[in-house]
Inverse folding.
């Protein structure tokens, strides 16, 4: 930021391939700049407007872009390292191959943009706006996203790891074939979200409201759900291996062919749920309400079933081989046609078996 004649001009730096250090561009409108493959170190661009610039393969190290505005800018494979971009505005457009690491991006706006093959590593993104953005084949690791707005955002083939999602706005968010492992979703509003074919393993979903969510073919193994609302969700062919489910309301959920193997369920409610062909092998199921649910062809083998409600439950062709617990409550089931011989041959018959 010195005007000393010994400091080379930007044009000289470009010609000589030298890094551009400690320059001040505050408040300027940078229009049609062709600054590709350059390195900027500790430069200030506070309040700058970048318009129709080409910054492909450029590197910005410890630069300040506070309240900057980016419009029709090409940033292909650009790198931002330890930069300040709070309240930065990225105008709608297609951004590809950009990397942000250890940068401050609080209150920044990424809405209505298409982000492809981008990386955010250890960034501060509190209060950032992603409304209706599309994020494809990108990665976000160890970022702080408190109070960020992801409403109607689309994630495709992306990975968001170790993200604390708690207290964020996520209604209408859609993700497919993405990895969202080890996320902290506690207290999140997940109503109407769609996470089809996503990996959500080891997540904390305590106190979430996921009414109407679509978790088709999602992997939720080793996750924790407590005091959650999942009414009317679609979770066909979903995976819940070793999952802890305590006081979760799955009323009228569609979960055909879901796998709850080795899961721990306490105080849950599957009232009028679609649970055909579900697998509960080796699961511990305690004080769970299956009333009115369709559990046809379900497999409860090798599990522990205690104090559950089966009033009006359909259990056609269900399996209970080597199942422990008080199974007498099954007498309240509406249909048990074809259920295996463990109960049918008991000394005190407790089920009514209808011939096919």
């Amino acid at each position: 930021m010195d005007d000393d004649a010994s400091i080379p001009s930007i044009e000289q730096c470009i010609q000589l391939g030298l890094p551009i250090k400690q320059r001040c561009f505050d408040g300027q409108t940078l229009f049609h700049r062709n600054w590709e493959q350059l390195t900027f170190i500790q430069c200030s661009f506070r309040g700058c407007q970048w318009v129709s610039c080409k910054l492909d393969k450029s590197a910005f190290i410890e630069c300040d872009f506070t309240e900057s505005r980016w419009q029709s800018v090409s940033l292909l494979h650009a790198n931002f390292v330890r930069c300040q971009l709070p309240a930065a505005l990225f105008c709608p457009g297609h951004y590809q191959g950009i990397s942000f690491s250890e940068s401050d991006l609080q209150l920044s706006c990424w809405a209505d943009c298409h982000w492809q093959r981008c990386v955010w590593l250890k960034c501060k993104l509190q209060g950032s706006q992603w409304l209706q953005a599309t994020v494809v084949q990108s990665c976000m690791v160890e970022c702080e996203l408190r109070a960020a707005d992801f409403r109607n955002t689309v994630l495709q083939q992306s990975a968001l790891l170790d993200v604390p999602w708690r207290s964020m706005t996520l209604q209408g968010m859609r993700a497919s074939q993405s990895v969202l492992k080890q996320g902290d979703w506690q207290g999140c509003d997940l109503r109407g979200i769609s996470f089809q074919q996503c990996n959500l393993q080891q997540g904390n979903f305590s106190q979430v409201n996921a009414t109407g969510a679509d978790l088709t073919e999602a992997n939720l193994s080793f996750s924790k759900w407590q005091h959650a609302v999942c009414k009317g969700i679609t979770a066909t062919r979903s995976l819940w291996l070793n999952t802890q489910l305590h006081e979760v309301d799955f009323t009228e959920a569609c979960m055909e062919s879901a796998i709850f193997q080795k899961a721990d369920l306490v105080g849950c409610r599957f009232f009028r749920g679609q649970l055909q062909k579900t697998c509960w092998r080796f699961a511990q199921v305690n004080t769970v309400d299956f009333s009115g649910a369709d559990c046809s062809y379900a497999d409860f083998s090798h599990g522990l079933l205690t104090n559950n409600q089966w009033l009006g439950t359909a259990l056609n062709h269900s399996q209970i081989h080597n199942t422990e617990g008080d199974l007498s409550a099954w007498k309240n089931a509406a249909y048990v046609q074809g259920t295996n011989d463990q109960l049918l041959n008991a000394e005190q018959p407790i089920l009514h078996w209808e011939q096919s």
Remarks:
- The first strand starts at residue 20 and ends at 21.
